[in-house]
Design brief:
Layout (H helix, E strand, L loop, with lengths): L2 E3 L3 H11 L5 H19 L5 E7 L4 E7 L3 E7 L3 H10 L4 E2 L1 E6 L6 E7 L8 E9 L3 H12 L4 E9 L1 H10 L4 E7 L2 E2 L5 E2 L5 H6 L4
Helix pairs in contact: 1-2, 2-3
Bound molecules: 1-O-pyrophosphono-5-O-phosphono-alpha-D-ribofuranose (PRP) and uracil.
């Protein structure tokens, strides 16, 4: 398993629009939707397929269909910002929710909500969250999903810090990590630099 960094021209362009502190909630969400769709397209490129016999208007043929169900799991709140774009591309996906609040003093994640589909052992689970900072929230999410039996887990984030990437690679080498961009470092408050600030606040127009 591996870490993939998109380095995609259109994603870079849209990410810069989002990072700009002048970006309105509207601009932020529009670009997040677009990037989510591009990420979903790339992440699903090599999913396993199985044969499916059908009859076209012209003749019988053996087509392909996804071998496993897909489960999208946004980490609340900010992960919701990626959900619309992913669902636009994968409309048949099941959706589970994990609420993780990062304690801003200890930087430790606290799970406050969990609602996941049943029987996800064979499903392809895609955790979505814009920010991978210390990696604590993502680690806790992966742990919750593994406890529920998930065996195929992918983590998709917009921006990652090297610290967060390392913690995922060290703890869960079986989890593929997809990042739109790898940023420079974390500051003393655990914010990604240069980053985009607090993703949840920028997405929902709050200022906690
Ligand atoms: C943000 C973000 C991640 C987490 C990343 O959520 O959406 O879930 O921080 O930080 P970490 O890698 O250090 O755990 P936050 O806790 O701010 O909650 P919110 O989405 O409700 O704003
Ligand atoms: N969470 C955010 O929303 N932004 C960061 O930079 C780090 C954690």
């Amino acid at each position: 398993m591996a870490t993939y960094i998109f380095n995609h021209a259109l994603i870079e362009h849209k990410l810069t629009l989002m990072r700009d502190q002048q970006a309105s909630t509207l601009v932020f969400k529009q670009n997040l939707d677009d990037i989510a769709k591009l990420m979903a397209y790339e992440i699903t490129r090599d999913l396993p397929l199985k044969d499916k016999d059908i009859i076209t208007p012209l003749c019988p043929m053996t087509g392909k269909e996804l071998a496993n169900d897909i489960v999208l799991v946004p980490i609340l709140r900010a992960g919701l910002g990626l959900l619309d774009g992913f669902r636009d591309i994968i409309k048949e996906a099941k959706v589970g929710f994990l609420g993780m609040q990062r304690n801003e003093e200890t930087l430790q994640p606290e799970e406050y909500y969990a609602k996941l589909p049943q029987n996800i052992e064979n499903d392809h689970v895609i955790i979505i969250d814009p920010m991978l900072a210390t990696g604590g929230s993502a680690l806790a999410a992966i742990e919750s999903l593994k406890k529920k039996g998930a065996q195929h887990i992918v983590l998709a984030c917009l921006i990652g810090a090297p610290e967060g990437v390392k913690i995922i690679e060290d703890h869960y080498p079986d989890v593929d990590l997809y990042l739109a961009h790898l940023d420079d470092h974390l500051n003393e408050k655990g914010y990604i630099v240069p980053g985009l600030g607090d993703a949840g606040d920028r997405l929902f127009g709050t200022n906690e």
